[in-house]
Amino acid sequence: MTADLFECRALTKHFPVKSVFREIARVHAVEEINLSIPEGETVGLVGESGCGKTTLARMLLMLIRPTSGTILYRGTDLTRLGGRELRKFRRETAIVFQDPYSSLDPRMLIADIVGEPLAIHKVAYGDDRDDIVLELLERVGLKTEHMYRYPHEFSGGQRQRLAIARALAADPRFILLDEATSALDVSVQAKILNMLNALKAEFGLTYLFISHDLSVIRHLSNRVGVMYVGEMVEYGTSEQVFSHPTHPYTRGLLHAAPSLNPDDRDRRSEVALEGEVPSAVNPPPGCRFHPRCPSRRAGCDSAVPELVDIGDGHLVACCAEGRTHGGS
Amino acid sequence: MEGREDLLVVDRLKTQFFTYGGVVEALDEVSFEIRRGEIFGLVGESGCGKSVTTASILGLVAKPGRVLSGRILLDGDDLLQKSQKEMNSIRGCRISIIFQDPTSSLNPLFRIGYQVAEPYIYHQGMPKKKALREATRILATTGLADAEQKSRSYPHELSGGMRQRAMIAMALTCQPDLLIADEPTTNLDVTIARQIRDLVHELQRQFGTSVLWITHNMAVVAQLCDRVGVMYAGNIVEKTDVRTLFRDPRHPYTVRLLHAIPSAATSGAELEEIPGSVPRLIGPPTGCRFHPRCDHAMPVCSQAKPAEVEVRPAHFVACHLFRRREEDA
Question: Which of A292, A323, A324, B209 sits between 20 and 30 A of B231, alpha carbons compared?
């Protein structure tokens, strides 16, 4: 059993919607989420747009202050830390964003982009910095001569390699990959995914991988959390979630994702999801999924389901499914 | 599927862009045909020429681009010989298109109902009131809940999925012979994308429309299309029915591409990579454009462009590997 790198308890974030002077509504972006990320593992977060994946991840890095709840990072509560201690914590974390076109400053040289974390965290300057940058570029499959170029001279895949090199610069323990391969073509994505796996083993990294692409999450993650309108509806190992999906939303999501086998095409089923994702300003009462749920029962619109362990750490928040499985 | 007549025949289409940087050889003699009532998928990575193909079919290749040669036959009629005016009466009427991004292809200043009604007014000369009623009816067939009220909304008041439904309604107004869908589900959430795919499938069955579905997603092809063309750097490298393509792909690029996709079987393992990267189309590789990245490259590959070989009935592959075997036999 490895120790947890991150552990959050009842983490909540509400964003105010303001009129001129007063708050008129609240976006319930993340609601009472408990999540632990074991050191050395890759945790995948899936869910549709606006379900709170990115808000949750940014709270973990303290880029957004949570409304309530605690985040433990290796035992210390991040929500109580001050500026200087937070900076020390930030050195151990890094982010790779989705769009490598907007995440690299077009006016900076590659050497400065990749070397910036080294300067900010006062790790290395001058020639020392350049040596480290060179090593990083080589590690992500780029060449020495790329150091004194600008981002526009690179393709999408190469830019994402640069973003990864920058993330690795300050020698982090944890990298947040926010849709890091979503903008890439399949053949480029394959290379980046392989590289991420190799880097993880080499540097002993822990990843939080956010994606809406289920097959990428399945390929990369040890553990998977499924989110719906700010709530975690299912959490378990990759095997548990993908081979034995239990929450009706997870099943619907897996059903909606196209399969590579043309013989699956006529697979009509009762789990197909209708309707659209509700707004987080005014989420449905009770279970937030109940208006779209194919196995909804009486009571789903009032009782808020909690995450229940249905065996071997496979957590499901559903009044209907959780109970039947818990009983058997 | 056999024996259906061809609705659209694209024959050795060659489109190039004359830029300051050089000539971009975007389409290099692309040929395929779409039969009546089928969904034909065109699949490939970015920059392989999928969207240039659509633009060429619709006569929308903008300067500095030009269609140099080839034929595009719609029911035997060559679209490349048509005047702008004739094309205007074909676009939106006999051929219509849904784009990837419904937000930027709907006009934010007009109500949804009016935008859907426009083809009736322009192509069929219908009076405005009747056209608006018809628009509401067709919006309802696309599964838009409360179509009556939604037709009076502006685009920003609808979600992405609803906007895409409105785009589909607009494309279907004149009951086109051919519907071109250019990555229509790429920007949508998984469950909404599924609803839109099911909708197009349903409408295609109902109206017998042929569909040209353009995508970079192999899994979408597997679930939706009847026949597929795989594009690489301005060429169609393999063309066959969908089951054959996934069961027995023959072109080295198709084989490698299918192996590069993460799936249940690959979890934890290393994905297969295709060495190198997609070539620039200004001065592309000679001969077969895939040869610098191909494991099976032979001397002939860099010298001559491979011709399409029918490796089995209705399964075409443009690769020198198959030519040689045929000649040996």
Answer: B209
> Taking 50 as the threshold, does the pLDDT of residue A328 lie above it?
no
**Which residues in B76-234 belong to E strands, given as ranges?**
77-78, 95-98, 178-182, 210-215, 227-232
State whether B223 and A262 contact (CB < 8 Å): yes
Rounded to the nearest 5°, which phi and psi values hold at A87? Answer: -60, -40
pLDDT tens by residue, A228-277? 999 999 999 999 999 999 999 999 998 888 888 888 876 655 567 888 88
- Strands A42-46, A206-210: pairing is parallel
Q: How far A190 CA lies from chain B's nearest CA (Å)?
A: 6
Using a CB-CB distance cutoff of 8 angstroms, which residues of chain A are in contact with residue B266?
Answer: 219
Q: Which ipTM score applies to this complex? A: 0.83
- Shortest CA distance to B325 belongs to which of B312, B314, B257? B312
> Peptide bond preceding B64: is omega within 30 degrees of 0, i.e. cis?
yes
Cα A16 to Cα A2: distance, rounded to the nearest angstrom:
38
Task: Tell which of B191, B195, B196 to mutate to test the A interface (max A CBs under 10 Å).
Answer: B191
Angle, helices A186-203/B252-259, rounded to nearest 10 degrees:
40
In the block, residue with structure tokens 């050889």:
B25
Provide the pLDDT for residue B324: 61
Question: Angle at Cα B235 formed by Cα B59 and Cα B46, nearest 5°?
Answer: 80
Predicted TM-score (pTM) of this structure: 0.88
A294 interfacial to chain B (CB closer than 8 Å): no
Angle at A160 between CA A155 and CA A165, to 5 degrees: 125
Is there a contact between B191 and A252 if contact means CB atoms under 8 Å apart? yes
pLDDT at B160: 85
d(CA B73, CA A82): 70
Residue A231: the pLDDT is: 92
